[in-house]
Amino acid sequence: MTDHTPTSTPDSDHDHGFELKKRRRWPWFVAGAAVLAAAAASVIIPFASTPGSANTEAGATLTVATAEGNASEQALVQFVAEKVAPKYGITVAFKGLSDSNTINRAVSDGEIAGTVYQHKLWLSQVLASNPDFKEEAATPVFRWGFGLWSSKYTSPDQLPDGATVSLYSDPANEAQGLWVLERAGLITFKSGVDKSHATQDDIATNPKNLKFTLLDFAAQSRALPDLDAAVGYTEYYLAAGVPIEQQIFAPAAPDEFAGQLTIGSDFADSANIQKLVEAFKDPAVQEFLATDPRVKGILLPLDAK
Questions:
Q1: pLDDT greater than 70 at residue 268
Q2: The whole model's pTM is what?
């Protein structure tokens, strides 16, 4: 009753970082090792040649990056930069970068101080796919607005037998989507399953015989009229013009899915990074998340119920 075949691939332009390092069909498959070496150099050398890191230089500006075009995360970082960082004696700046691997490599190498877009499960998948990255989650910062959406029904129990429900096509967010469906009473998991790593194979019961289709972030919100329901991020639906009233179930995400301030492990003990972590832990950040219209409903405070 479940379809494990993704119908689309993740949107790398604005993907929350949910893009694993993949085997690409580069020209070196036909051109040989010389092209491979040149391609590798073009990616790695700019980071490796960086002389030192602002993370360890007193008075340097600490850059926190997220994906380009993410207005809510940019607003969060700019709030910390303007209202919180001065209390801790540091200067913080925002930067948008093109994709997940670029952001994570820059964090690992110390070219930027940190990022705030990924939860622990996603970070673990990034590190598994990129064993040269040295990163760690320093502190949870927010919970993503994430829930069940439908343009046809107003509550989960109205979904018909055989309803088609979309989950995201990356493993981390597929697991979170299944968790939402379990909380809504639409499925149950097998005994002992780690819900933060759940897959469709871990479903024990599916009383409504839901059929699953996997779509990427932007495609899912656009496809909502053709689906019975979908589980996804609030920001993508609002950006697509879907009214918030079509979010029919939205439990607060568990700790495993909280957005983390991610830092480079080699810089975790530096005074600059320790102050940066304290700045993101400041209670003013949680007040900002609860009240500022630029992030309200998209980036939720950690105590959101």
A1: yes
A2: 0.75
